[in-house]
Structures are given as structure tokens and as C-alpha cells.
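Ticket reopened. Same input as before:
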Amino acid sequence: MTSDIDAAAGRLLGAYASGVPCEPVRDLIATADDAYAVQDRMTERWLGEGRRLSGRKIGLTSRAVQEQMRVDSPDFGMLYADMAVPDGDEIPAGTVLQPRVEAEVALVLEHDLTHERHTVADLIRATAFALPAIEIVGSRIRDWDITLADTVADNASSGMYALGNRPVRLEDVDLRLCGMVVERRGEQLSSGTGAACLGHPLNAALWLADTLVRVGRPLRAGDTVLTGALGPVVPAAPGDVFEARIDGLGDVRVAFGRADQDGEVS
Amino acid sequence: MVDVHALAATLDGAARDARAVPKLTDTAPFDVPTAYAVQRELVERRIRRGERLSGVKMGFTSRAKMVQMGVDDVIWGLLTDRMQAGASADLSDLIHPRIEPEIVYLIGREVRSVADVESAVAGVAVGFEILDSRYEDFRFTLPDVIADNASAARYGFGAWHEPRDLSNTGLLMEIDGRPVQTGSSAAILGDPARSLRAAARLALGAGMALEPGWVVLAGAATAAVPLPKGAHVRVTGAGLGSAEVTTR
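Engineering reply: fixed in the latest deploy. New output:
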């Protein structure tokens, strides 16, 4: 089993290294626990290489996606400081394999969340502020041919993330009914609202806080939590520029570099 | 030559008997202007029975729907006072009702030009529209659905609020307390105010004007869902409170 987990991690790391998506890893791992073991193997490796953990992302937070993946729970992945880009920055082509974008509420913590079980009050007290975010998800697995095990193993299909610049306190925004739009050149590609994320983005964050204590990597002061998509995900192509607007929270942009001189894109 | 009166009579009968009919274009194709003539005659039949015009509804206001129907403009239908639902809505005279969350405008004075429409708005509210195609399986072409008064059946709205920017207002629709649809008003042409202007444009183009006291249903923020009997539906909009209806 351990060798299978190593093999799955090796396959995914190979895709990162080569820039060529790999086959799914579900042939090597059976359960969600196995999949998190693969993710953890990669986490240990990356932390050992000196990457700084900057937060977590929550995935599979919409009812439609949960039904499509036949799961009844969200999942999580690790965010590293080198995955964060400033508002409006351009991500060079090929940085994220098979990129897609989604607009989310980001929470930034000012206290650790280390209880076995947290209340919403604990979470609100621990949250310094919210920011609008664009998550650039990606998949190391060919054609996004993923099951729950595949995406969990693949760090919950995380890629990069862009954060807005104006912090908003939780009392100043209705995270349940904040409208969301994603546009490219003025064309609306996605819209939704906070309730699409497990009923409320804080619900997703609560699940995360409890889950991370169970697995021994609790949320810490300073962590950023990407709570989950507020509407449908949008495929990204080289040269695209996206703007996300979340009512009451502000806006944030991200650009994708055009193909490099060899015309090679991922 | 299409007989506008006969087509209107067919649709009117389908609605009154709560029995779906095959789409009209199966028998003989007709164009969009003819379809609006059928719609007008269909509504005239209601008015002759004592109903009063109470507003307009906009359709195909989402990009996805426009692409699906292969159109590049919105459509509209006419509302009558009889279509307004109270706290309770009887569905027994509907064929296959669906419900969707709406942004609703209240017209405060007659709208004489498209540029005039936003200043004529007296209030905004969250609301719902109950759709009921008179066609079998909700299947129709563009002229069919226009002739069928854009599937209009019932509508309702919550408390009026001061006019405001509604370009990205979150909306939630619950049935029996469980969320069934979530979305943003941005799904309505990017901003429901565009739909309002389109309503003024289409009304003026048809030789009508939006009248004081009329409502404009700007369009759906999400896909419609089947509406069962015995259901409690609540649509909530950020800063707009909610609109509710119980079906029987």
C-alpha cells in the first residue's frame, strides 16, 4: 500500500515536473484516506523543499459538483505562498496545467483554530477579514478525468490564487447572498452567490477547520482559506484576462500569459 | 396564411383546460411578428373576460438561454392582474408549472421613452415567476413561445424597496426550507436594468407604454425548477427581503 501511495505521488510529481498531464491515480489508491495520504506525501516533500504553507483551499462545495462526483463532503488542498499572485498579475502560460478559474470568498485568519470541534463563533472570532479571490484550479491528470480520489491526491486540483486588495470585515458583508460574476472582456462567463458554497462560505470553512485538526495540520493565524466556488468554473485559455466581482467584497483580476515563443502551451 | 385568431384560440383553450397542445409550428411555421400578433390576441381574449394588464415579463434574458434558443434578443410577454399570486397559489389549472427567482420593478409613471424608464421606477423587489408552457413537454421554437405569451402563468413579489443598483444581487430560492437554486441578478443580461430598458423598448415598439402601477419581471437569475403542489417556496434577495408562495 505504501508503495502504491508513493507511486501515485510520483506520478503526480512527474506531471508537475514535465508539464505533461499524467494518467489518473485511482488505479493505485482506493479510498479518500489513501488519497489524502498521497497529498500528504507531496506536502511533506514540498515543505521539505522550503515552500511556505499559506493556507488551504476547499473544493467540491457545490451541490451540483458533489452530485457529479458522487460525494457528500467537500475536500481540501494545500496553498503555498508561491501560488499566490497579486490582483491583476499575469500567470505565464503553462504554469498551471489545464487551468480553470472560479470566484471565491477568501478568509484570512488572525487566530489559530485548534479545537477538536469549532463553532461559527470560533470561526468569526478567528477571522481577521475576507477578500475576493480568483482561484486558478488545475489538474495534473489528463483531461481532468478525475474521481474524488484523483482530485484529493492531486492537492484538490489546486493551482494558483489571486486575492483582492481591500479587506472587508465579516460584519460588513452578507456572504450568503453576495452576488458573484466572472467576466472576460466584458462577457459574463459565470455568476452565482455565496449560498452556492455549502449554503454559506463559513459553513465550508468550519468543515475545514475541524477536518484539519483531525489530520494534524490545523489552521493557523495568517492562513488564507479559499472557501469554495460561488458559481460554475470557467476554462482559461492563453491570453485570457478574467475579472471577478463579489457584491460587498470587491473585485479581483487575473491574466494568463500567451503561449511562449515555441507556441507551446499547456 | 396563418390564422392568428385560430392560433390564439388554441393556446387560450389549452390554458383554460390545463391541457398541453403540440407546438403550433408543427402545423404551419410562422415568423416572430406573427407570433407577437398571436400573443396580443391571446391577451385580448383575457381582457375581454375582464382581466386587466398589470405588467410585462421578460424572457431569454440569460446568455445560456439565448444560445440554447439561437436568439440574440430578449422576448417579452404580457401580465394580467389574474396572474398575480397571493400567499397561496392554486396550481390545479396549470399544466406543468415551473418556478424561477426574479428581480421585479414597479413602474411609477408612464414611460414615454427608453431613456425615461429608470427614472420612472418607483420600487424594486425580489419575486418569482411561475411558468407554464401550453406546449407538450415544454418544447417550442422561438415563435411558439412568443405566441404562448412567453409561458407566463403566475407571478408574485415581496415588499417594494427604493430603487438601487441590482447588477450583482445574490438570490436564493428555497422549497420547503431547502435551497434549490442560487444565483446572481447579474445572470439577467449582466444587469436587470438592461432588461428593464428592453421592456420599455419592446413596449414602445409595439405601440404601448409601460403604465404606472405595472410591474416588470426582469428575468430569471437561475434555471426554473418544477413546482409541485403543497410546496412552500421562498425567494430571498440580498437587501430585498423575500417573496413567498405556498402552492396547492
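Residues 32-48 of chain B form the longest helix (17 residues). The radius of gyration of chain B is 17 Å. Please confirm and we'll close it.
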